[in-house]
Amino acid sequence: MLLTVDVGNTNTVLGIFDDKELVHSWRVKTDPRSTADELWLQYRALIEDYKPSGLAVCSTVPATLRELRTMIADYFADVRVTIVEPGIKTGVPLLVDNPKEIGADRIVNTLAAHTLYGGPAIVVDFGTSTNLDVVSPKGEFLGGALAPGIEISVDALAARAAQLRKVELIRPKNVIGKNTVEALQSGTIYGFAGQVDGLVDRITAELAESYSEKPTVIATGGLAPLIIGVSETIDHHEPDLTLIGLRLIHERNA
Question: Is 105 a catalytic residue?
């Protein structure tokens, strides 16, 4: 069995694979202050019914990755480990100005998207930030767009506007809100859907200059369910895209 760990700025997602099948996954809060021993206690409680023989990790949080390395050395010494970082074989050419700037999760998502859906493709990852990653027909990472995420935008609005507050993020009955709560929900849900659709349309137009096929648009990330029902451009929802990519990279480095 393989344990996959995707450490994001807000949440950490763990998954257990039995061969190619994801048999269980968990989503927990990311705390950069957690020590290696605290991480081990948390992970052990989740995976106590499984005995992984492999571990694959990607992280966008340097402090947590540092503690994960210590945890791995102390508690996973006999397990084959793959950490997505320079030197690891991913099979994803990075056609950007500075490949070192690209987050490990974006590389992992590119590989998974191309493996599952081919290319060209656009991965829309709804997390702390909203990432749009563009994949060529050959599986190359072409670049993309980054925007503030849904939750941090709502938090910032509530913090800076005296008469506005945080609201439950659900789709309102109407676009025209009849009260403050509905208006905030409308602006958030439909506003972010419009942002994604607008960016996808512009990316698609640029890709048309090089490729004849229209890109497949894949949504992932913890906040994707908020938008997929109202977006006009998303083709597929794959909540486990990053975990699948970690499994693929682990297999490439066997």
Answer: yes
Could you state, in order of their start, the residue ranges of all structural domains in the chain? 2-83, 118-239
State in words which class domain 2-83 has: alpha beta
Catalytic residue among 105, 125, 133, 240: 105
The pLDDT tens digits of the residues spanning 26-77 come to 999 999 999 999 999 999 999 999 989 999 999 999 999 999 999 999 999 8
**CATH code of the region 118-239:** 3.30.420.40
Q: Do domains 2-83 and 118-239 have the same CATH topology?
A: yes
* Position 128, amino acid: T
| Chain segment 197-225, per-residue pLDDT in tens | 999 999 999 999 999 999 999 999 989 99
